[in-house]
UniProtKB/TrEMBL annotation:
Cross-referenced InterPro entries: MFS, MFS_dom, MFS_trans_sf
Organism: Aeromonas media
Single GO molecular function: transmembrane transporter activity
Keywords, alphabetical: Membrane, Transmembrane, Transmembrane helix
Protein name: MFS transporter
Amino acid sequence: MSSSVSTDRVAMASRSPGPALVFAMALSCGLAVANIYYNQPMLAVMAQDFPGQSAIPLIAMLTQLGYAAGLLLLVPLGDVVERRWLILGQFVLIALASTMAAMATGATMLMLASVLLGIGATAAQQIVPVAATLADPARRGAVVGSVMSGLLGGILLSRTLAGLVTAYGSWRAMFWCGVPLALLGGLLMARMIPLGLPRSTLSYPRLLASLIGLWREEPALRRATLTQALLFASFSAFWTVLAFYLADPAYGLGAEVAGLFGVIGVAGVVAAPLAGRMADRRGARSVVLVSALLVVLAWILFETWLSLVGLALGVILLDLGVQSALVAHQQLIYGLRAEARGRINTLFMTGMFLGGTLGSSLAMLAWQQGGWVDVGWAGLALALTACLAALAGKRSLQPAS
């Protein structure tokens, strides 16, 4: 590694993320990642505006595919360029894509905007490694957990906001709201993220090529990625079909109710810093195992307690389990190689969101074939497989040194 990187590390040793910076990073993470989830409670309404266009249910999947593409192609750049300017550029992309979605005249334009929104939203995954880099190693889990609470809040409250705006305005109004919110996140990060963070000296092509070596050389990363991908597939399966389920004649509820379930899942936001601190003390493995079991229990509730109360309790367990496992896994992987955190995050989050894409696709197929019951069996199977993966990783998921 070059002396310039060493010098950067020395300079960073004198810095630590204060409360204002941690809050700004958490808020900006939430503002970025929210763009992946605005569409979920709006899908049924959007389908009504574009009758006969069967591609509308694919929008959630396409947004996640865009996110996976951004993780693979843009997040590694954070290891070689100034993250401050990269993050700002991605927020500008979000603002432009939101404008495109709001003005969409057909499903094709809306689908393209959704892919671009997913790509831009990976700004959140540029911010989280910054938090890990700035944090003292002994507190890395707690700091990352605090920043992740903002990201998780964005995931959950985005659905609530989108549901309410759609119910009392329109789905286009929600995308218009996304424009100033994205610009706010970009301005915050452009002003507050320090320059001179540790960077790799590899060229971009070699940086991408090095992903293969990292994946091969880090078994803990592989295990964490597989387990989290399965958990997130289960998570995405639920949220992809919830709006359709609630709109079914059995409930006859609209987008605003689907969105309000995001507020119920706020337990995941509260749990994120706690999960980080627990992973700091006891290691990631115990947190991941308990978290995966909570997701299994959530799907058992969804399958056996067919009421709004059962849904609400299941949402709490689902979000608590998936988000706690995510923070624990990040505490683990960010302790592997400091100079490769961007690339490690790329591999981990790409795998996770490919899992989300799988979960969304599987859920729509199950919904079309057998309704909510089949969706429940699919979600439960994914959660149980995640439990098995976590157990099989007994030797991999050890506390980060």
